[in-house]
Amino acid sequence: MTLSHSLFIIVLTLANIGGALWLLWWTRRSRGEASVTTETTGHVWDEDLRELNNPLPRWWLWLFIITVAFGGVYLALYPGLGSAKGTLGWSSATEHDAAARANAARIEQTLAPYAARDVVALSDDRAALNIGRNLFLNNCATCHGSDGGGAPGFPNLTDRDWLWGGEPDLVLATIANGRAGVMPGWGEALGARGVEDMLAYLYSLQGRDLAGDKRAGAVKYTELCSVCHGVDARGKPEMGTPNLTDGVWLHGGALTSVRDSITHGRTGTMPEHLSRLGETRVKLLAAYVLSLSKPEAPRAALADVAAGQ
Fold first, then answer.
1. End-to-end Cα separation, the chain, in angstroms
2. d(CA 31, CA 94)
3. Residue 98 C-beta-side C-alpha neighbours within 13 Å
4. In the chain, where are the structural domains located?
């Protein structure tokens, strides 16, 4: 706060207090007059109803004085006069920081029993899954959905189809360190006819027939795509490339979506969570994500959460 702003607030505050005191002094009866007078304020209602100009009752006057005195004491103890901090040194920032530290301590106490356990053990612990579910809803549901079912461009976590591998250590590494994937666009290299041939070949891997020369598409696939997706088109987890034979499409399996992927390419980023959540939370989150491919485990966890356990 600048000096000019501080002085403005101080002057305004003290002027209000001084004005309140002057008003109380002006309305008092200090000369021993009778407590009731026939003098009116000049206001008239309904032709003959007049307001008498009587002073405030003493108890009411003293109540106002006490209120003003309380305000003065408050301003001496707490911040209120510009940049003055008050004699107690209280501030909303210190109050927030103290509450945040206390809350962090409670959270660490709750997480402590899980710190030394591995992801596999945690994935079979209902209490750990309850915590993992809350972490998932707060950190992952925006992209992957509250049920982990995913969305176009965001993997389904319930179908056992893992781009980077579904082993516990690999899932933990994905959550902790994040992932980045790039699919280059092949529209210029293939041409419009070549894209359609590639589509025919890819869909033939799933037993579907499309117009186009799937043999020519197979040749182009070997030349351009097999390095990343594998000769058998089953993907390479070490590169994060998807399996093209199982009918699971990250960006949607509709013909227009797959054509767009081949023509223009795709990019995707999974942010890292270790620096923000810490090791124990990441392990709990990984355990819950792994449990999503075992329907009985998350169902039990959800039931416990709903019951308030």
1. 48
2. 51
3. 6
4. 3-77, 110-178+272-306, 183-267
Q: What are the start-end ranges of the H helices in the chain?
A: 3-27, 58-77, 92-111, 119-122, 126-139, 141-144, 168-177, 187-204, 214-224, 226-229, 255-264, 274-277, 279-291, 296-306
Q: 78-113: per-residue pLDDT in tens?
A: 988 888 888 998 888 899 999 999 999 999 999 999
Q: How many other CB atoms are there within 10 angstroms of residue 113's CB atom?
A: 12
* Residue 298 reports pLDDT greater than 50: no
Q: What is the rounded CA–CA span in Å between residue 258 and residue 198?
A: 10
Q: In the chain, pLDDT over 90 holds for what percent of residues?
A: 65
CA angle 292–276–296, rounded 5-degree value: 10
Strand partners, 270: 179
Quickly list DSSP for 117-170.
S-HHHHTT-HHHHHHHHHHHHHHTHHHH-TTS--BTTB--SSSS--SS--SHHH
Instruction: Quote the radius of gyration of the chain (alpha carbons, Å).
Output: 36
Question: C-alpha 72: how far from its chain's center?
Answer: 42
CATH code of the region 110-178+272-306: 1.10.760.10
List the one residue out of 126, 169, 162, 105 whose CA is nearest residue 288. 126
Give the angle 271-272-274 at the CA atoms, nearest 5°: 155
Q: Which two tokens stand for residue 134?
A: 């809350």
* Residues facing residue 241 across a β-bridge: 236
Q: What is the pTM assigned to this prediction?
A: 0.71
CA pair distance 194, 187, nearest whole angstrom: 8
Distance CA 21, CA 228 (A): 82
Domain 183-267, architecture per CATH: Orthogonal Bundle (1.10)
CA quadruple 289, 294, 300, 301: dihedral, nearest 10: -10
